[in-house]
Each structure stands twice: as C-alpha cells, then as structure tokens.
Amino acid sequence: MDKIALGVDIGGTNTAYGLVDHKGKILVEDSAPTRQFASARDLAGFLYDFVQKNCDIDHLVGIGIGAPNGNQFTGTIDFAPNLHWKGVIPMVEIFEKKFNKKALLSNDANAAAIGEKLFGNAKDLTDFVEITLGTGLGSGIISDNELLFGKHGIAGEYGHIRVIPNGRLCGCGRKGCLETYVSSTGVVRSIRELNSVNKQSSKLADLSEPSAKKVFELALEGDVFAREIVDYTAEILGSSLADFAAFSDPEAFILFGGLSLSGSYFTDKVKKAMDANLLNIYQHKIEIRVSALNELNAAILGASAAIFWNTLKFNFNETH
Fold first, then answer.
1. Which of 6, 99, 160, 202 could form a disulfide with 225 if both were Cys (CB 3.0 to 4.6 A apart)?
2. How many helices (H) and strands (E) in the chain?
3. Inside any domain, residue 21
4. Each residue of 190-224: pLDDT tens digit?
C-alpha cells in the first residue's frame, strides 16, 4: 500500500473523493453532498478521517483537489459561483496544514482532463478539450500534451462565455453564459422557460423535481417536449464548440458528465450543430467523444494523477 494519493472533486452539488494508486486503480471511493460541509476546513477534517480509516496515512503522497475556479498557482478557490463557500478560499493551505502532506489544487475540469488523458478516452490525443457538464460547465484544455493554465492560472472558464445576449442570469452575475443553457441545471431551466405547444402534454410537466437525466430518459421514450429540449441544448453547445475550435484547434472535444451520459443520442446532435457552424478550415477534423470514465471517478483520477505528476514525476506512459 505505497504511492497512494487522495483525489477530491468538489462540485456545486456533490464532492467525490477516493484513494488512488499511481497506476490509476481506485482503492476506495465515495461521495457526499458539498453543502454538508459548512466550511472547507470541515471538509478537510472529514477527509482526514476517511484516509485514516482506509490506509496508513504515511503511505499518502499527497492530496489532489479539483474544484470550480480552482487556481493551481495560488492554491485558492476564487469566487466560485456554484459553491456555497464564498470569496477566496485557501484550499491548499487548509489541506496541507491538516494532513501535513503536499496538496495541489486545480480547476475541476482541468483535473478531469488529466484523468481523461491518462486513464480515459484521450490516451491517443495530444490536443483536446474536456467539457464537463454538471451543475455548471467547465473546460480543461490540453494543447501539445500540456495543460493550459493561462497567465493567472484560471484558463478554461468556457462555461462563462456569453452565448445569448442579455440571456439567462448566471451565478457569476452576468447574463447569457453558456452554462446557464447546457449544464444539468441549465437543462432544468429550459423545462421551465421554453414555450412549447407540447409542454403541457409532456411527462416533464408532472415532475416535482425534474432533472437533466429525466429529460433525456423521456426524450429517448419519444416525449416531444423532452426532445425539443435536447435539440435546443445540443444546438447551443455544438454552435459554441464551433467557435471554441477557432481558439485551440483541438483533435476532439470530450464530453464528461451530465448530458453526455445519454451517449450518441446527444453527441450526434452536438456534432451536427458543431459541423454546421465550424469555420471551413476546421471542417471534418474535430471529433466529439464521450468520456470513457464514469461520472464519479473521472475527476478523482485526474486530481490524483496531478499529485503524482507534481510530486513523484511518474512516467505514466511507461506504467500504462
């Protein structure tokens, strides 16, 4: 039981965590509602107890943390709109003090991108963008096998590119951001906000707590209004990816979580919308893939991989 990292994925709804070895094997994993923890220090204490129960803490090489607005340069979460912890949160300082181990913070989408590259559906890619679809929307950008951080450590906030002028109010305080339309919460907003003659006859109208998952289940069953929502969502996402292609010229966009779990039914529609809006020099050169890692463990693996990369400098190409 040596060379173990604690991977933590902090989301707006749930926090997933697990112990991972350097070959990508998850030894134990679980999740908890993020709002269960009144502060980041409460989360650190909870996870310290989790590690103590499941391994000798002396074998822990470090803690990798993926979080919205996580800044690897500063070790802080900076004003994350989808977290109930507000302001600037010194995550690395909190965890290193609690564990007396190396801690590394990254954007949750960056962590997912690393996990995808090492253990998922991007092993053969040198240039791709991981699009995470959950409570919000994040993007992790790999260019020439390097993760793009930007000057201030916060590159990849694609969920906050505005796609609809004066559109839906976003948690960031602006209007019309992409994540307000294509994230899981954005899909639920579409149920309430889209006007349709098919709305009242839809089974969605009878749900007390509708979800993106339910929208796609009903769409596959033939519910007309649910299909309208899927088409609307895919059109906005695909069109936006066509614009993003002009920035990074990727080999593929990889969709992780949320809507992508419906598989080709959704991704085929996204690909069609992207291709229809791509600049001609990018036509027929960019794939849409679905993450090969399940929704719970992808970011856990990514956060853990980041720790191994930065502390032990493992050569993952040789270990795999």
1. 202
2. 10, 13
3. yes
4. 999 998 999 989 999 889 889 998 999 999 999 99
